[in-house]
User: Fold this.
Amino acid sequence: MMQNSIFNVLGPVMIGPSSSHTAGAQRLGRAGYMVANGDIKDVRFRLHGSFAKTCQGHGTDKALVGGILGMQPWDSNIKFSHKIAQEKGVTFSFEEADLGDVHPNTVAMDITKSDGTKLFIMGSSIGGGSIKIININGLSCDITGDYPAVIVNHLDKLGMVSTITKILAEHSINIVSLKNNRSGKGEVASTIIETDDKIPEICIKQIVGIKDVLNCQTMERL
Amino acid sequence: MMYKNGKDLLDYCNKHNCKISDIVMENECKISQISKEELGKKLMDVYGIMTDACHKTLEKAIPSVSGLTGGDAKRLTEYINSGDSLCGKELLTAVSYAMSCFEVNTSMGRIVAAPTAGSCGIVPAVVISIANRFQLSEEEIVRALATAGGIGQIISQNATVSGAEGGCQAECGEASSMAAAAAVEIRGGSPQQALDAAAICLKNVMGLVCDPVAGLVEIPCEKRNAIGVANAYLSSDLALASVRSNIPFDETVEAMYRVGRQLPMELRETAMGGIATCPSALCMRKKVIK
Assistant:
């Protein structure tokens, strides 16, 4: 959605009751779904601050589970997400946590995929349905979910970012934002790029094929 | 953006002898890169969701997720049907729509945040009730929503749309302003009158706090949506009667923003003041908060 569109005030279409505690929470859950490529066996939700206190009254717990099942924000099945998760064999748990110096509406998700792989994602619901993903697998980031995004995990090597962005340019993909984080010089790094348009499969394949790229996750508009 | 405030809207409308909806739609087509037809379809999709929500609990009560509220839209509908009211059938019907829409929200149903979930009943109630009463065409409905959207854009960008920042005057006040401007344009009022109606709405709720019981979007929010509809109806009629707003729309928006920043945080969606700290509210809070 364009920043100035009238559909920012005549929208979003959402499941209530709260844009921050329900719609925002649902989008955060869906970010988890994306990062796990839709393959989730179990999620441990750790809720911080206001998210924890009003979790049930705002339907935050149902919204988060709806999100990790891949539901869209306007899906009326969100209300029944716990039952649907049970039917699909997806398990989940909620606990209150102190996540440190973060926004009052923040959730950390410890995700386990069907093959036992563990993933971590943390994000905040900052108001009006807007969100910020602030950490993926231990590396800090700043993803709004308003644009498609790609997270490239690689070794910190000279020219890596240039190689990635060159591939995007060759496919006429315009970059909205780019952030690079590394755990140490020459160690594991993460380049997170938000783009105007969805990145085509062939482009992702090329990025994954770059030497020293470990893996790649894409995220649709949330 | 083709306009950044009410003055820009007025200048453009005067220069081109057009309505607010004309410039809003032209601007939206430009920035979203869609055709007028596509815009019309998107707005009618939104209208469809609003209509469903405004009717859903008129006859069948649905409790909120917390269990604290539910059934008021139905009670009001029965009262309207009894034929005996102070406000009159037209206004109360619009209010019942807002309450139904709101109850859909609190029961985890689908709504359009216009501009927020907490104020979601007001714009739909006013536009739909007028559309039904005066049998508006699809084009007129699209224009009504566009005008509402334009006013909403201006207020959100020059002030705030969030209760946490500006109190309920920002959320329900903005929604009422959006609805009132739409109502005035539909009823043949001028762009100036539409802006006057929007300004009067904001002045009528200047300083209105956000004091939600148990921090949930329920009490007193549903009743603030009710008064929000009444505010829009009243302000529209005043403007159409050529009652001017003594303070222009842009200045009123700025005042609302300033007042919002002056409200203590206890009265800005923290549930630490206002009715949220009354004994009855604290009892309810114990039931729903861990």
